[in-house]
TrEMBL record, chains A, B:
Keywords: Lyase, Magnesium, Metal-binding. This is L-fuconate dehydratase. The keyword Magnesium applies. It holds the Pfam family MR_MLE_N. Its EC number is 4.2.1.68. It catalyses: L-fuconate = 2-dehydro-3-deoxy-L-fuconate + H2O. Its cofactor is Mg(2+).
Amino acid sequence: MTERISSVDTLDVRFPTSRHRDGSDAMNPFPDYSAAYVVLRTTAGAEGHGLVFTVGRGTELAVAAVRSLAPMVVGQPVDELIADPGELSRRLVGDSQIRWLGPAKGVVHMAAGGLVNAVWDLAARRAGKPLWKLLADLTPEQLVGQVDFRYLRDALTEDEALALLRTAAPGRAERERILLAEGYPAYTTTPGWLGYDDEKLARLCREAVDAGYDLIKLKVGGDLTDDVRRLGIARQAVGPKVRIAVDANQIWGVPDAIGWMRELRRFDPYWIEEPTSPDDVLGHAAIRRALAPVKVATGEHVHNAVVFKQLLQAAAVDVVQIDACRVAGVNENLAVLLLAAKFGVPVCPHAGGVGLCELVQHLAMFDFVAVSGSTEDRAIEYVDHLHEHFVDPVRISGGRYRAPTVPGMSAEIVAETLTAYRFPDGPQWADGAADRTTEPATTAEIA
Amino acid sequence: MTERISSVDTLDVRFPTSRHRDGSDAMNPFPDYSAAYVVLRTTAGAEGHGLVFTVGRGTELAVAAVRSLAPMVVGQPVDELIADPGELSRRLVGDSQIRWLGPAKGVVHMAAGGLVNAVWDLAARRAGKPLWKLLADLTPEQLVGQVDFRYLRDALTEDEALALLRTAAPGRAERERILLAEGYPAYTTTPGWLGYDDEKLARLCREAVDAGYDLIKLKVGGDLTDDVRRLGIARQAVGPKVRIAVDANQIWGVPDAIGWMRELRRFDPYWIEEPTSPDDVLGHAAIRRALAPVKVATGEHVHNAVVFKQLLQAAAVDVVQIDACRVAGVNENLAVLLLAAKFGVPVCPHAGGVGLCELVQHLAMFDFVAVSGSTEDRAIEYVDHLHEHFVDPVRISGGRYRAPTVPGMSAEIVAETLTAYRFPDGPQWADGAADRTTEPATTAEIA
C-alpha cells in the first residue's frame, strides 16, 4: 500500500524569554521566542519536523495558517512528495485563493515554509542523511528542478544556475571533507542585546573572543549616546582585530540610518544590519553608497526571493542573511543561495531565536559544499539560547558550527519541552503568565 | 462616563462567485469573493464597519488576525481613537511581537487595515459625513499627522507633504462642488474576465461603451493566441477611441511580460497591469522601459507604502493602483496618495471583489478634492458584482461614480447577507458547497 502523509500536527510553543530581556533589540524590546511547531506523520509511522519561528503574540496565526495549508499535504504519497518538495512548495505558495493573503509573504508564506521544511526533514531522515548532505548529494539538474524561476529569470536563468552548480561539482567531495573536519564559521550575537548593562556587555564580549569568535554583533538604534558608549566598551573589550557588526532591526528611515551610522563609524563597524525597512531595496542601496566601506546586511525579514533578487540587482547589500523560516522553506532558500552565488555576494545566515541555528546551518553548509564553494567572509549567526530543547542541537566549538551528522534538518523539539512550553496551557505559562504577554505601555526603558 | 470600544466582532463571509467564473483571471481561476467583516461597537451603541477583502480560502486567517489584534482596540476611548486613528494604526502595525509575522505585510497588515478602516467609518458616522468629506475637511496639518513617515522621508518629508496639501487647499471647495455635481470617472472590468466566451466578451464590451465608459479592462496572460483573439474582438467592439487596459495578474516574469506584451501592442493597450510579481520594483521599471508608451500599472497587491515609494522612485509605474484593504487602512493609503502626488503619478484605485468599490471611492474622491486636485488620467475600477449586499452601495451613472453622501465609509453589509453567506454554515454554503472549495486539480480550462 502506498505510504501517504496521514496527519499534520501543529503546536503553539512559546518560551518566556522576555522575562530576562534575552533577544532585546530596538524593535523587539520584549520577544518571547516561539514557534508554530509542525509534525508530519506518515501511514508507515515516519515523521518530518519543521517550525515557523515567531516572537510571541501572533504564533496562533502561524499555527492557524499551517492548519489552513495542511489539506494540501495530508494524503499525499510520501515517495512523490520527498522526491520533489519543489512541487509541493509551488502548490502551497500558488494556491489561487490563499495567495491573495500574500502573495508569497507574511504568515501564509512562513507557514508554507514550515511545511516544506518538514517534508525535507522527512526526506533527509528517509535518506539517512543530515539535510546538508542530502542536498549536497543532489545533481545540479535535481537542484535546479527544485527552484521556481518564474520571477527570477531576469537575474538568473535555469542555465546559469546549472552552470554555477556544475562548476562547483568537482570540488564537492574535498569541501565535504573540510566541513566535517573543521566545521563552518560562526559569529555571536550573545553579547550585544540592548537590554544588557555595560558590565555584562564587556564581560560577554571578552568571553566571545576567548571562545574563538572573530566576529560579534551588537544591537544599536535605541539611543545614540548609549550606542556610542556601548560600541566603545565593545571595541575596547575585543581589540582592533575582532570584527563588530551592528544591527538596527529596521528602526531607521534612510536619512536616519546614514546619519546615525556616521556617528558610529569611528568604531570600525563591520556591517550595519537591517538599517531600515526590509522592503526598501532602493533605501538599502542608498545607505550602502553613503556608508561604504561599512557593509550593509539584511535578510531575516526579506520575505521572498524576488526581494533578494532586487537587493542583489541594485547592489544594495554586501551580506545576504537568509533565514530558515521566513521564506517558503528549503526550496526558496536554494533560489536565494543561487542568486547570491551569481552576484558573488556572501551569505551569512540569520539565526538565534529558537531553532533557527539548528535549521539554517544545513543551508550554509550545503552552500559551502555545492554552491558558493567558499566560507570566506561567511559565518552563521550563533546565539546560545534554547538549544537544549532540541533532539539534535547545534554543536559549537572554537567559534565554529560542527557539521550535523544525525539524519534530518535538526528541527525536532524534545517531547518534554512541547508539553512544558505549550501556549497558553503548558506549566511554563501557568499562574497567569500568558495574561502578561500584552505589549508594555512604553518601550522607553529599552534605552 | 467615557465612551469606549466595547467589542470587535469579525465574521467570515464568502460569496460563491467561482460558480459562474466571475472574477476569473490568469492567477485566480476560481475566486470566491470574501471578507473578514469587522464591526466595532461602542459602549454608547455606535458602530464602525470595515472589512478585509479575500478571495475564498484563507478568509479564516484574516478573521483570526483581526481577533489577534482586537485587544489593542477594545477598551480604547472613542473620542481619542477617532481623533487620531493614526496612533492606532502605528500601534497595530508596530506591535513588537506580531510585527515578526510581517512586518507591514500579509494577513496581519490587512487585518490592521480592516480595523483602522472601521475606526474611520466610526469617525465619519460620528461626524455625520461620508469619509471622503471628513478627510477633505481636515487641515493639511491634521492630514500630515495621520501618516507614519518613518520609512518615507527619503522620498517625501512632512514639510513636502504639508506644502502639497496647502497648495491644494484653496481649490477644495470648488472641486467638492464639481465632485458632487459630476461624480468621479470610472472604468469597467466587467467585460474582460478570462472565463467569459467570445460572444459574451463582445457583448459586454459594447454594453460598456453604451454605458458611457471610455476605459475598459481585459484580463490577459492565460494563452497568447487567445489573448490576441480576445483583444481583437474587444478593439473591434469598442472602436479606436475607447481605451483598453490589460491585466496579467502577476503571471509573468520580466522577460515573459515584455515578450508577450510586444505581441499585444498592435491593439493599442492603454496599460499593462500587474505584469509580474508585485514585489518586483526593478522588474516593473524594466518592463516600463521596454514597453513605453504602453503604461505600467500595479498596486492591488503592493503591500505597503515602502513599496509604493520605491515604485515611484524607480519610475517603475505610470499608474498607482491603491486598494482599500491591502495596506493598513486609510492612513497608509493617505501616505500613498501623498507620494503619488509628489511624483506626479495618477492614482487609479483597484476595486471590484466585494466592497472594494464602496470603500476605495472615498479615497479617490478625497484625493481629487484635497491632494492631487485632478481627475485627469484617473478612474476608479468598477465591477458590477455584489453591490446589492451593501447598505450604501456605490452609485454609477454615465461611466462615473456618484459621490456618496451617507455618513461613513460605505462598508456596512446588510444583515441578511451576513446570515446567508456566513462561511461555512450559512444557507448559501449549505448542502456541502463548502467542501467543494478546494483547489481544482487543473486550471487548464481557464484558457
